[in-house]
């Protein structure tokens, strides 16, 4: 039995194809970006010139117009509209001799030239509306296209507008008969040939998704997608503990709870048009707690698509107490929808028979107001509710974290605001001329040791800035397979070298300092005025232990060991993994790493257990501040340097993030900017203005750090 046969009659409950509606073909997008409103020229179909359509965004697509009706997909298969099917000259010019007509009802298109005997027609009754099943038409058209292809007949598949039904049948043929193309590949091919995005109705997408799932043997929940910024996951989850407790059957497996119709119908109808801003299920949480979760992020200072919090109004439609209504668990979904989009969402619900209730709206005064019937059962400040919710978590924190740190975080928890991000420059991607400069690119060694990690992100960041990044293990240097002499720069990555058994980076530093060969090689590299070195996290601890930062004033020598600053255990007494905010300071590193970035406040990942900057002597600390050897500082929600937890995750004095050398060539920092150069996918939060609208950023702000050092290399030739 074929995959197509096995997909016939299958309920349209898959979400696999939904995101295909969301992204244009790569080629079409590039063509559209070449110049809005400009013609893309013509495509030649065996000597016949047919005008190609420029790709348009989803919401701007319109039915094809006269003169743009037939598109060659591949082999002997064409797709088009009723206008093309009625144009005898166009059909003759393209050599088409077979036609598949996919129309129905009052919109049925006649087989215009059937009586002439010059064309063979095949007609399928198929409505272009939710709930229509294209399986029979797909099976029949696949058989006909295969048969006519073997006979050498050119075939037109058409519907009314040439956008949905005809395209669906061609996609099914490409997947089933044309060497088993994947759904993504088939859509990409059709997009490229038509010059516009595929626009099938949701029921047809579900059929195509079921077909591919059968072909690939995929489980439910897998989602091929052009647009990975839109996540749709259909994991089969189950409730259980409360239900099992009520039944006094704690040993039992919990009941499975499915609400596929609700999820699928709404998502299929609303996601392609970007009607839904936020969607959260409350299978595991009651409605009341769900709504608190809904607004939690804004209380913590993260504006989630403009959502502040929810006001709930629920009519008393069935017997039950207020607690039962607000805290009862049952499967369901809560959506946030723009007021202007509400009519369109209601139409989707009504078409699919899904019962929905408008339960509330957002507010700007940060209060949560719950009504049951006409009774107001809760009117409270959201921040206070959030503190109550987190109280048990803080009790647990006292068992695993330094108590003063827990008390600091708890005391300031209610007053948290959005991160105070600020940019003093416009991030730009690296120019193609730089990326393609080949042998002229500067070489940087991405140095790692046993237990290191983050080397791939480090290499990618330097590569994105125009460097030639090399993977260099310490054993390569020790055994002479390569040498730092052949590199302009060295980047020492994070991780846990030697599992931090001897404290962070001490084993790594010992492998250099106690090897005469490596000690001499590292010293020679540091002494060359055309080189740079970056240490991040474990690499920063290494540069401190080697004495490369801050160094002796006025020379490239290292401080005596008893005076050397280093990074010690966090004040919280535990490993810290957080997304914090740092401010770029005016420092010696500005000349090499941070040019044009001073004054900016950016989010960055920290992942370390020993990141507190310790100064054995006050004199060295004062010199570091006086000579501006502090490249960054941790800041609070007001954008001011701080030692308070959790803004400063390690307790460094004055919020010190790291150190740099007197000439700025060596920089050691504990956070991980290399994990934030892929924009914006690696950022857990960004201001809306950075990702939306005309002022949205073209590249990650942290990419500039790596671009700056490349510019410095260009300006300071190899010695």
TrEMBL record:
Q: Which GO terms describe its cellular component?
A: cytoplasm
| GO annotation terms (biological process) | purine nucleotide biosynthetic process
Q: Where is the Tyrosine-protein phosphatase domain?
A: 69-217
Q: CDD domains from the xrefs?
A: DSP, GATase1_FGAR_AT
Q: Which residues cross the membrane?
A: none
Top-level taxon of origin: Eukaryota
Q: State the InterPro entries in the record.
A: Class_I_gatase-like, Dual-sp_phosphatase_cat-dom, Prot-tyrosine_phosphatase-like, PurM-like_C_sf, Tyr_Pase_cat, Tyr_Pase_dom, TYR_PHOSPHATASE_DUAL_dom
- A single MF term (Gene Ontology): phosphoribosylformylglycinamidine synthase activity
Name all Tyrosine specific protein phosphatases domain ranges.
Answer: 150-205
**Protein name (database record):** Phosphoribosylformylglycinamidine synthase
Q: What is the lineage of its organism?
A: Eukaryota, Sar, Alveolata, Dinophyceae, Suessiales
């Amino acid at each position: 039995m074929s995959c197509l046969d096995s997909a016939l009659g299958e309920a349209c409950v898959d979400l696999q194809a939904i995101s295909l509606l969301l992204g244009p073909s790569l080629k079409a997008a590039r063509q559209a970006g070449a110049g809005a409103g400009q013609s893309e020229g013509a495509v030649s179909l065996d000597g016949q010139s047919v005008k190609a359509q420029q790709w348009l965004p989803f919401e701007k697509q319109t039915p094809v117009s006269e003169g743009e009706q037939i598109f060659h997909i591949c082999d002997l298969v064409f797709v088009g509209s009723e206008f093309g099917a009625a144009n005898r000259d166009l059909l003759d010019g393209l050599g088409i001799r077979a036609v598949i007509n996919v129309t129905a009802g009052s919109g049925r298109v006649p087989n215009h030239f059937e009586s002439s005997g010059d064309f063979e027609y095949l007609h399928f009754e198929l409505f272009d509306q939710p709930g229509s099943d294209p399986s029979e038409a797909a099976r029949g058209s696949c058989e006909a296209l295969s048969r006519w292809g073997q006979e050498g007949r050119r075939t037109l598949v058409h519907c009314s507008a040439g956008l949905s039904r005809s395209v669906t049948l061609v996609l099914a043929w490409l997947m089933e008969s044309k060497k088993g193309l994947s759904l993504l590949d088939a859509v990409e091919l059709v997009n490229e040939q038509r010059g516009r995005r595929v626009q099938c109705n949701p029921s047809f997408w579900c059929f195509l998704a079921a077909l591919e799932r059968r072909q690939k043997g995929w489980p439910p929940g897998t989602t091929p997608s052009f647009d990975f910024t839109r996540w749709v996951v259909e994991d089969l989850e189950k409730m259980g503990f409360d239900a099992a407790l009520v039944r006094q059957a704690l040993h039992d497996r919990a009941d499975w709870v499915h609400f596929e119709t609700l999820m699928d119908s709404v998502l299929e109808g609303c996601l392609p048009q970007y009607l839904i801003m936020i969607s959260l299920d409350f299978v595991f949480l009651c409605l009341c707690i769900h709504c608190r979760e809904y607004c939690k992020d804004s209380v913590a200072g993260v504006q989630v698509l403009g959502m502040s919090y929810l006001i709930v109004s629920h009519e008393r439609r069935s017997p039950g107490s207020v607690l039962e209504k607000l805290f009862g668990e049952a499967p369901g979904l809560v959506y946030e929808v723009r007021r202007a989009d509400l009519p369109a969402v209601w139409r989707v619900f009504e078409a699919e028979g899904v019962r929905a209730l408008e339960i509330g709206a957002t507010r700007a005064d940060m209060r949560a107001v719950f009504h049951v019937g006409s009774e107001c059962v809760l009117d409270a400040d959201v921040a206070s509710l959030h503190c109550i919710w987190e109280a048990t978590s803080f009790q647990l924190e006292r068992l695993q974290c330094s108590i003063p740190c827990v008390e600091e975080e708890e005391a300031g928890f209610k007053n948290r605001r959005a991160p105070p991000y600020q940019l003093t420059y416009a991030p730009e991607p690296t120019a193609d001329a730089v990326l393609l400069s080949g042998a002229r690119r500067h070489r940087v060694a991405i140095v790692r040791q046993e237990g290191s990690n983050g080397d791939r992100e480090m290499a990618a960041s330097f590569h994105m800035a125009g460097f030639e990044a090399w993977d260099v293990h310490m054993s390569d240097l020790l055994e002479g397979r390569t040498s730092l002499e052949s590199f302009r720069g060295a980047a020492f990555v994070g991780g846990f070298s030697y599992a931090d058994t001897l404290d962070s980076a001490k084993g790594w530093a010992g492998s250099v300092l106690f090897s005469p060969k490596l000690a001499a090689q590292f010293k020679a590299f540091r002494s060359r005025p055309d080189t740079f070195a970056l240490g991040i996290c474990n690499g920063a601890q290494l540069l401190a232990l080697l004495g490369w930062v801050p160094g002796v004033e006025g020379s490239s020598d290292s401080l005596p060991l008893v005076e050397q600053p280093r990074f010690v255990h966090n004040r919280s007494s535990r490993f810290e993994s957080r997304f914090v905010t740092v401010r770029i300071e005016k420092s010696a590193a500005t000349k090499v790493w941070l040019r044009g970035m001073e004054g900016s406040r950016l989010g960055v990942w920290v992942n370390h257990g020993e990141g507190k900057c310790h100064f054995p002597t006050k004199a060295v600390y004062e010199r570091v501040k006086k000579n501006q050897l502090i490249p960054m500082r941790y800041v609070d929600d007001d954008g001011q340097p701080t030692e308070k937890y959790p803004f400063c995750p390690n307790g460094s004095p004055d919020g010190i993030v790291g150190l740099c050398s007197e000439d700025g060539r060596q920089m050691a920092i504990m956070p991980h900017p290399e994990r934030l150069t892929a924009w914006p996918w690696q950022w857990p939060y960004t201001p809306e203005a950075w990702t939306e609208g005309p002022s949205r950023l073209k590249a990650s702000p942290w990419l500039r750090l790596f671009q700056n050092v490349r510019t410095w290399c260009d300006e300071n030739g190899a010695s």
